[in-house]
Amino acid sequence: MTTDHTKRRRALAAAIRQLSNVFVTSDMADADLDAATKSLGDLARQFVADDVVDRRKRRGRSFFNVPRVDDDPQEQSLFEDSGFSGRSNPMATNARFWVDNDVAHMVVIFDAVTEGAHDRVHGGVVAGLFDELVGAMISSLREPAFTVQLNVRFREGTPLGVPVEGTARITGRDGRRISLTAEMHSGEHVVAEAEALFLTVNPEQFGGPGRHL
Which end of the chain, C or N, has fewer beta carbons within 10 A? Predict the structure, then answer.
């Protein structure tokens, strides 16, 4: 169950996200920019840094608690502070993920802050969401695993401001290695495809960095 404190963090993250999109699509006078910089700096200094343990507790969702199709849209992310779908991360997109009938699904509307070349989403953002999408599929197996390879083919420019949907499926397994494919499309147009390879690890390896190959 989402706590009131988490709801407040989500609301602040959404406000910062809105500010980011307004900032990249508009401007203000120099004096106003200076005042805004001071105000945001003062706000940032009010926060107290978490230690690693507290931050992991706040992330809330277990790696294995995969969103389902009938979940509340606010809960359809992998981790609370995920860089690509976390509701409490102001840098994240509004992407939603869920797994249904052995297929991982995603839907997202990309904002202006994700723009790369004119009128299209930056390829790095597309790749990152592919990693999140195949990660959702892996999580449904209830086995800790990491991405070891992700190949993306961009077939068209990924559009801004309209729904983009994605799907991912497991295509094979060889011991610890799990292969997946995924695609994103806007309407009837496939805009990007991906192939991914994950490697399962021991639960104790999943908690931090290190070599797993």
Answer: N
